[in-house]
Design a protein that fits this description.
By secondary structure, this protein is mainly beta. The chain has helices at 19-40, 82-87, 98-101, 452-456, 461-480, and strands spanning 52-57, 68-74, 91-94, 106-109, 118-122, 125-133, 143-146, 154-157, 162-167, 174-182, 191-199, 212-217, 223-228, 245-246, 250-255, 261-266, 269-270, 276-284, 297-302, 308-313, 330-331, 335-340, 346-351, 354-355, 363-371, 384-389, 395-400, 417-418, 422-427, 433-438, 441-442. It has a 5-stranded mixed beta barrel with strand order 1-3-2-4-5.
């Protein structure tokens, strides 16, 4: 076939090798030699075969074994050498920088690589590496990434694209041997944390909870930060704006580019709240009396947070639900329970107001007649007295009629009563002395029978005259006697 540079030669034909065929033989030989050299240098690297990457050192200096090269570009351009590009991944290596090669854009050399030479490096999976650990601050770093301008080792940190599976024992600071996993770490380095309550307060109906925590690495038990408020920057947690919240015990976090810890999620749990405790301080109103109710008003505070809910609240006015006795003294409240309506209104349901019920114990009194006003057959007795407390001798009343309200002594509607000298009384809620009993005694006299013969008429002469004389004497005697209240007046 005309123009075929790779046409085979028959026996006894003259050998003529076209330039294109000769150059192809040379390229194939070179590729075979480079592949054989890379495959025979370290038989132990075969376990990493899937992660072995040919890389060209373009730094201008020798890269030591286990040194670091940043990935710059593919060795073969897909436009200029498409077959070579597709056949195997090969890279150009440069001095790594934090800006361009953090996050996994680097390889670990598995042999020394002279400047301008091609060698094999580990691009993924497990490999040994030299890692620098920062000054000891009591925290164990679990990730590693490139150090800016450094080809000798990686730098350990709180985040990175390489996970540190093991490190050389000893002091934390300095360059140490480590076993790392390339490509297996999260760029954000999210890890579990344990949260220990440090300060803050429970939320209430109108106040947000304010819990703060000490943050502890759940894997190593290292204290990563103290008294952390998960609501403030750079943290990302959000709480309900009001209501009680159970403190957290666990969460997830990561370290940002500045090395500061950021809480992303914690297991705080909002609690349902139907009613909540309140404290009350009497701020207005008046005490009740025997004829009027108390009218106390209060400054009301959330008992949990101390937040002011109102300053002059009458708990018996709508929408509140408290009820007082219609009359009488009531001790002011100091505590209660309330709720918040769907419209956001405070509703007081119960407070510890206590009706003031002083003991109504009777005590003895002595009575000195102040004004004699005896009853008649048609009018009641209405004696008035000066009243003294027997135990102390103190006068507690003047010109008191015990048969008139508010006193409780009762006399018949008519008739005579002997004045009293003694009685029983008590003090009402207003402190007034109320007489309940006195030793006034009714005056009950016998009533004679008169005028029978006169009304019936006389019999024989002498007898009739004698009866008439007797009746006349009785009438005279009756006229001289006081009225006994039986209908026979003077």
């Amino acid at each position: 076939m005309a123009g075929d540079s790779f046409k085979k030669v028959r026996p006894r034909e003259a050998l003529r090798i076209p330039a294109a065929a000769y150059n192809a033989f040379i390229d194939a030989a070179r590729a075979h030699r480079e592949g054989r050299e890379m495959g025979s240098r370290d038989a132990g690297r075969e376990v990493f075969r899937g992660a072995l990457i040919p890389i060209l050192n373009t730094t201008g200096a020798t890269i030591p074994r286990f040194g670091i090269l940043g990935i710059d570009a593919p060795l073969f351009d897909p436009g200029d050498a498409p077959e070579a590009f597709r056949r195997r991944v090969a890279l150009r290596g440069v001095t790594p920088t934090a800006a361009d090669h953090s996050g996994g854009k680097f390889v670990v050399a598995l042999e020394p690589i002279p400047a301008g030479r091609l060698a094999v490096a580990c691009g993924a999976g497990l490999c040994a590496a030299r890692v620098e650990f920062p000054t000891d601050d009591g925290r164990e770093r679990r990730f590693a990434d490139v150090a800016d301008g450094v080809t000798a080792n990686l730098m350990a940190g709180d985040r990175g694209s390489a996970s540190i599976l093991w490190r050389e024992p000893g002091a934390t600071a300095g360059v140490k041997w480590a076993i790392i996993r390339l490509g297996g770490a999260s760029g954000a380095g999210v890890f579990p944390v344990r949260l220990e309550l440090a300060s803050g307060a429970q939320g209430s109906a109108l106040v947000r909870a304010s819990w703060n925590y000490d943050v502890v690495d759940a894997l190593t038990d290292e204290v990563l930060a103290e008294v952390v408020d998960p609501l403030t920057a750079p943290h990302h947690w959000g709480r309900p704006t009001t209501g009680p919240v159970s403190p957290a015990t666990f969460g997830t976090a990561h370290f940002n580019a500045d090395g500061d810890i950021e809480l992303g999620w914690i297991n705080e749990t909002p609690q349902p709240m139907w009613v909540f405790p309140i404290t009350l301080v009497q701020s207005g109103g008046q005490q009740g009396t025997p004829s009027a109710p108390a009218s106390w008003q209060y400054a009301v505070y959330d008992a949990t947070s101390g937040f002011t809910l109102g300053t002059s609240i009458n708990p018996v006015a709508a929408p509140h639900q408290w009820r007082r006795p219609a009359t009488g003294k009531v001790d002011p409240a100091t505590h209660g329970y309330a709720s918040i309506s769907s419209a956001g209104l405070l509703i007081i349901g119960w407070i510890n107001e206590v009706p003031h019920l002083p003991a109504l114990h009777a005590f003895p009194i002595s009575l000195v007649l102040a004004e004699l006003a005896n009853g008649t057959a048609t009018a009641p007795t209405s004696h008035m007295y000066h009243v003294f407390e027997v135990s102390s001798g103190v006068q507690v009343g003047s010109f008191v009629n015990p048969g008139v309200s508010p006193h409780q002594w009762r006399r018949p509607g008519i008739g005579r009563y002997s004045p009293a000298t003694f009685g029983l009384a008590y003090r009402n809620a207003a402190g007034d002395v109320i007489i309940t009993w006195t030793n006034e005694a009714p005056e009950l006299e016998a009533c004679g029978t008169t005028g029978v013969t006169e009304e019936l008429g006389g019999g024989g002469g002498g007898g009739g005259e004698m009866l008439m004389s007797a009746n006349s004497a009785e009438r005279a005697a009756a006229a001289a006697e006081p009225d006994c209240g039986c209908g026979k007046g003077r």
